[in-house]
Amino acid sequence: MNYQRESSVHKDSYRGDQVLGRAEWFLDVLNRVNGNRNGRNLLWKAAASAPVGFCHITSGVLGTLLEGIMDGLNLDRIQRRFARLEEIETRWKAPAPADHEGGVFAGVPTRTAKSKSDDLTSRVNMTWVKFRDTVLPRATKIEFQVRQGKDNFCAIVTAEDPDAPPIIQWDSPQRRNPFSLYVYRGGSTPDLWGLTPGYCKVTAVTLQPTMWQPGFEHKGKSVIFLLEGCRDHRESGLALFPEILRSELHEVRATIEAYSNSHVLSGAEEASACGLVRNDR
Question: How many folded domains does the chain comprise?
Answer without folding.
Answer: 1
